[in-house]
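Task 17 of the worksheet. Students: predict the tertiary structure of the chain below and write it out as structure tokens. Keep your answer in the requested format; marks are given for formatting as well as content.
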Amino acid sequence: MVKCSRPAWFLSFLFVLAIPMFAHHGAASVYNPNKKVTLTGTVTKILWANPHIGIYFDAADPENGKTVNWELGDGQAPTGLYRKGWRKDDLKVGDAITVTGATRSWNGDYRIGGGIITNAAGQKLFTGSKGDGLDAAPQTTTSY
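Model answer:
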């Protein structure tokens, strides 16, 4: 029988704990950056949970015009959206939205990632994309 030292057991334990960290995927493995879409539809479901929120909405497929249920997945974590000023009840089932600049999944199913959600009043509510101007901290002014 092979006898293991304490450091070997400890390193094995750390390795087992670290395995889930390698399971996370990049958006490029799921979404095609060359297939951008803009969709207008109605929210049907919102999942406000870690690790990413999910928003489901009915909108027409730009390729055939048929209305289908889309999943805007892999959005930011709820805490990141909260820091940007977005609250859980800012978007509700039944709200009209437009999603711009989203990328469609590689396999062509009805999932999109990234993009900006704009409500019927023109207010930007959500972003999953870097560099769209919504990642910056809010500007504050101080008067003396």
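Marker's comment: The two ends are 76 Å apart (CA to CA). Confidence is low (pLDDT under 50) at residues 134-144.
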